Amino acid sequence: MDYEILYKTLIGLFVASTLAIVVSKLRGKKLRLPPGPLPVPIFGNWLQIGDDLNHRNLSDLARRFGEVLLLRMGQRNLVVVSSPELAREVLHTQGVEFGSRTRNVVFDIFTGKGQDMVFTVYGDHWRKMRRIMTVPFFTNKVVQQYRYGWEYEIGRVVEDVRANPKAATDGIVLRQKLQLMMYNNMYRIMFDRRFESEDDPLFVKLKALNGERSRLAQSFEYNYGDFIPILRPFLRGYLKICKEVKERRLQLFKDYFLEDRKKLVSTKGSESVNNGQLKCAIDHILDAVKKGEINEDNVLYIVENINVAAIETTLWSIEWAIAELVNHPHIQQKLRDELDTVLGKGTQITEPDTYKLPYLQAVIKETLRLRMAIPLLVPHMNLQEAKLKSFDIPAESKILVNAWWLANNPDHWTRPEEFRPERFLEEESKVEPNGNDFRYLPFGVGRRSCPGIILALPILGITVGRLVQNFELLPPKGMEKLDTTEKGGQFSLHILKHSTIVAKPREV
Ligand code: HEM
């Protein structure tokens, strides 16, 4: 590190913070801020709290400071909301006021400063993107159009695993096959495309770039430059890598998917496209470009959003469900019994069946409760100064709703630390994942809630159902349980180890 630059930076930092204190005193406006640990100059609470603002650490803070608390992370205000009442306030009652998103320096790069949908502020651009994406992605018609494809993909996974004798003895890393399946489920919708195998060079490239994007964006490594802007020059190397990954990734989407699709549509003619035979999501999105509603960059950012928001989240949830079922064999058996009784042994579950299987639904709900893929939701933001209870929330605060704590707080749930699907058939039988109860928000609720819930739930049902119907899922020899250590990121939660799982085929 160049010590002269560091020295000058620290002097600059000192002068800037002194000036900020003087200016705020002169302005004289006294805000009634939410409680929180005592901040120190420049760093705020950063040195006390550290980088890892995960759902469990934030739950501990909620126990100390209450349902709304403020953390000063360098220059940033971070407000943590931890009660169903205040979640309702942020996501529903004041949904417009708190309906924007914060982006940090890294998300600015990956989303072209909010040219996408997920990370754009609440306003006209967001409304337009959400409208344009609804018909091609987020309706029951899409589910009915693509469910046969999803059933085919999990069928292929089952066939592959059955064909591999090692799966029944030493075990395999099931995740790799499920990852290919999830890409195929989504690339069918987006581009009417699929990848034949895990070794397909295009799939390998795509997976690597998406993986890099997620790692770079979810890491805590760059917090210092985000919290203390004057330290940003030290992030130059990190941000350069982010820019390179972003460019290569968008170029890949463009060259190998978007342009290919345009060519295909132009050779087949718009006739067949308009018949609906060929129309996939990107055709609808390109219609919006033709009408001048969005530009081609927006199209690439839509593809970027789906790659992250749809594929990873659903895959993580499937992995968690499998891990819990392996670690709770009696629950796995109970689910298998339900599938055999309701569908008949040997009848492979399809999408319409998922609604006839209450225990399967309960297993999925319980997985999403205990192992929420996005436990703090995607950070919200208030563009203007706002109020929560009697507290003032400074403009442009990052608002984290600790949805995991809402669903795991022992004051509101019976023995929440247990994986017990029965709760959703007994004391919590009225609770649904669509946000009908503010204690349970795995997909958020309100304006910025997850529109992909309509796809995610049937995919989860078909996938978990087929695996349990076809295999007895066990930990590898010599292990009693799978390791379920969590790995959190800026706002993601997945299983740390992609475990080997023994899949013993059942006679069907
Ligand atoms: C199990 C799977 C999934 C989970 C747990 C999940 C969860 C979430 C959560 C918690 C949010 C943020 C809500 C908020 O900030 O208030 C979100 C946003 C979003 N999700 Fe999902 N999601 C899943 C699957 C999907 C799928 C399959 C798609 C697309 C096909 C999708 C697309 C989106 C989009 C576009 C947003 C941003 C909405 C906005 O900002 O207006 N998600 N998701």
TrEMBL record:
Keywords tagged on the record: Heme, Iron, Membrane, Metal-binding, Monooxygenase, Oxidoreductase, Transmembrane, Transmembrane helix
Regions that span the bilayer: 6-23
Membrane association type: Single-pass membrane protein
UniProt xrefs under PROSITE patterns: CYTOCHROME_P450
Enzyme Commission identifier(s): 1.14.14.91
Pfam families cross-referenced by the UniProt entry: p450 (PF00067)
Subcellular location: Membrane
Residues binding heme: C450
Gene Ontology terms for molecular function: heme binding; iron ion binding; trans-cinnamate 4-monooxygenase activity
Cofactor requirements of the protein: heme
Pathway terms, separated by semicolons: Phenylpropanoid metabolism; trans-4-coumarate biosynthesis; trans-4-coumarate from trans-cinnamate: step 1/1
Listed name of the protein: trans-cinnamate 4-monooxygenase
Gene name in the database record: CYP73A4
